[in-house]
Amino acid sequence: MIPVNYLDLLRLAAPETVVLAGALVVLGVDLLALREVETGLRRLLLLILGAVTCGAAIAWMAAFPNLGNFMQGMLVVTPLTQWVKGGVLALAILTLLLSGGASFTNHWGEYVALLLLSAVGLMFLVSSESLLVIFIALELASLSLYILAAFHHDAPESAEAALKYFLFGSVSAGFMLFGLSLLYGLSGSIDLREIAAALGGPFLDPLLAVAMVTVAVGLGFKIAAAPFHLWAPDVYQAAPPPSAAFIASASKLASFFVLAKVLSVGMGGLEGRAVFGDYLPGWVPLLAALAAASLLWGNLAAIVQTNVRRLIAYSAIAHAGYMLLGIMGGKAGLPALVYYAMTYGFTTLGAFGVASLVRDRVGGDNLSDFAGLSRREPWMAFCMLVFMLSLAGIPPLAGFFGKFYLFAAALKTSSLDLLWLVILAIGMSAVSLYYYLQVLKQIYVVPPPSGLAAAPIPSLPKTVIILAALTVIVLGCAPNLLLRVLAAP
Amino acid sequence: MKLEILPWLILFLPLVAAGWITLFTLRNQKLSVGLSIGAVVTGFVLSVLFVAVNPLTPAPQELSLNWLSIGEFQVQFGLRLDPLSLLMMLVVTGVAGVIHIYSWGYMRGDRGISRYFACLSLFTFSMLGIVLANNFLQLFIFWELVGVSSYLLIGFWYEKPAAADAGKKAFITNRLGDFGFILGILTVWAALGSLNFGVLAEKLGANREALGGAATLAGLLIFCGAVGKSAQFPLHVWLPDAMEGPTPVSALIHAATMVAAGVYMLCRVFFLLNAGALEIIAWIGGFTALISALMAIQQNDIKRILAYSTLSQLGYMVMAVGLHGPTPAMFHLTTHAFFKALLFLGAGSVIIACHHEQDIWKMGGLGRKMPVTFWTFLAGTLALAGVWPLSGFFSKDAILAEAFERHHYALFALGVMVALLTTFYMFRLVFVVFFRPARAEPAGHAVESPQVMLWPLRILATLSIVGGVISLDHYYRLQFEPAAVGAALSWTAQLTHPFAHAPVPAAFGLAAALAGFACAWLLYRRADVDPLPARLGPVARAMRDRFYFDELYQATVIRAHDFIATIADWADRWLIAGLVVRGTHGTTELIGRALRLVQTGNLQTYAFLFALGVAFVLWWVLG
After folding, report:
1. Which residues of A touch B70 (CB under 8 A)?
2. ipTM of the complex
3. What are the DSSP calls for B9-45, one per residue?
4. Among B412, B302, B289, which residue's Cα sits nearest to residue B364?
């Protein structure tokens, strides 16, 4: 029995504790003090309380940068994990503020609390190197997200999508648990570093291959990589927009980070090789296959979509393919991956925000509902332009530099082994421009339908969207602002 | 370095003004004008303050931050502060400030005045960026920004086809030069592995031969950039056409700043240029100076005369650089910025008074009606002609002395010849416009311009008169010859310095000015029609038609280009758009539709596919 120093634990897990306490406070306040308050005000107060909680956690991390490794990988806090957690919290704040003005539920206390809980799960996911904690954190985050996806109380599609998400999630969690237990059985440890040491050299045991594949399946589901992406279009389209935005941004950021960690730390030495036509089994060819499938499937299927949120879902699948390249870039690719996942998070969150505003105004978020947006809402149209072009990877927006650094990292570490995949990714980027421009064509070229009553749009979501667009522009013009701190040792 | 924040502020204030005007105040003209003028005038005040607290020293200072890092390759965004950039910063903000104020009067009542000032601010920002850049890449970015903003300004009256064409011509001609420029930058980077001016200077200082066999090539490729921007032969054709822009624009970008950027850049990277490259540069400069002075003699549009004069003076500066004399080049650039801006603004005042008439043969007698414009214009003319003790005399003399001391007598003779021609065409202009009775109706009713336009003239006239004796050359020498620099001379000593130091070039310069004036006096004092075409015949016609360069380019370059464009159009229409794009689009769309069928929404299908996916991945890894 190792003696546990609870003070150390508290010091390292302080930000998570703050958010957790915030979630409980939100529930308590909602129950005790806000029952009689009118819905709009109640929603505003609770959302702000949630946002303040996340802000407090960020401030705590900035003020007391406690780093360390608690109980052999149970909790590993490094500057990089701090930044990723900061990113998760920032995305949580934006998601919360994006919900201001939404009317899909009356249970705002539960909504905010669940969002905070899933943020806690994602934060633990980021800062643990122990199989057990990773799994528990993953479940905490996932269960909260399933409920968040079902939060649209009077839309049966929302419930249906959530159910699909849940069933898929539990199956892949099962796969993942299976893989984790195999890993434990093969190495006798749950700490990723010890596992790597125990597994040793480049030889790939069939049992180990099964473990590798099942873990990749479990996390491949979270990051919506093909062919484990089937839930994504349904959920992105039918879940309440802020929930979908959170699933697409923060959850993806943390999941990518943990996938990179599990593979590059826990299975360092088992990379294999993915030269075209000359494979050596390992996790790099595995990811290469997933990436190629995601790039092709996501980009090609996105072309024929008529619903914008579904289109974003397919583009998300494609982006999972790009980001997998960063994992294959190994340790050097990690800053590029985090930069990409963060900026992608802001972009897609903003895009969901615009889609949700259009839906509230026009009654739908099909492509045709965006017609003439530039004339009704020039600012929102401009933000959507920024988001779409950034997703397509047009300089000087963040998406361009994100892709650039990912590709550079993938090519550099693998000494051109992955050239075929990078070429595929670049080609597919060109394809993706087609459907992103379809959205912009509707917004800027097609005239608006007549007889649309003017209605003011709520200022809180508008601010969030503009903020997200600004982030995308600033991080695109000065990528070193973020990359420098991410790459710092 | 004290007050390090100031250079950043000076650089970015105009950008903020441009952005703010474009986004928010296009409809509020007063506010737009105020913002734009405020930004540049504040920039000038801050520049003065900065130079006052940080005396000029030969040691360069850098303020920089890492902008991009791509592997080993670091791109900085930095400011290089040395006598060269600081003086240039003062000149740019000062002259631009005066011209901004003048524009307020000149453009009054124009519908697009907010847009005009937004472009003007953008231009000022880009120009300051060139001046302060500490590396080639940043310089190139701002170089292109200058190109874009000059395009916007030249084509400001875009509803006039001539203006729109001139904008395009300027932009495209510049791009031609920039192509060589970027190749030169890449050559330097490939050979030396850095783009930072300080690092490059150090590397070349340690080993003169570091560039190896590529030295001359790199120098000439970089010079290509200057050929475009500073309108040297054979890319000089855009500048006269650019006179289609509003006159203050001509004053700002085609006299004082943009065209000076090429010369400035050559001086900035002077350490890179070897003797072989410099020889060619000197000859191109001298040739440009001569042919454009000849063309200026037979122009009848007041602004075009000044435009050719600008070309000719730029040729002078480039020639000075080529003669291993960046100090005289920068000296002449600075004094030229004062008096040429003055002349353009004076011409603008005349044009406004004559209701946008620009033909000098339809003017006349304006000297009495517009006294301030006349006297300031005369001051500018005398300065440009190089009459002692005005600024132009000292800077021109420095260039002639450089040629003389280097025993480059051919270029020396050419320089004296150009000086003669300069005085001749400028006094032709002065006699025809300001003396004799009015030759057309509008000139008869001309009245003096408002004070907002006259004060800039007075300020610039003062600078043109005293610019030669305020130690400018001393400060530039700090940059280029720190070892040889002595104490600054008093202004009285500077007045007589050229005669004591190099009497022969000074005497030749003054004699040339006198001869030019005498010819103009004889021919144009009483002329109501131009006597030259009758006397010179086809030669005069060739000068008027600019030696047929435009026609030559039309017949060769543009014809060839149109031919290639036709082929490209066909290929684009049928091969690329037809076969490749339609084909790819059809295929991808088909695949997309097929993939869509998979997404049935049915959970059983999904589960089946999921299991299939797992099986496939397992097979992939194990097999």
Report:
1. 404, 408
2. 0.78
3. HHHHHHHHHHHHHHHT-SS-HHHHHHHHHHHHHHHHH
4. B302
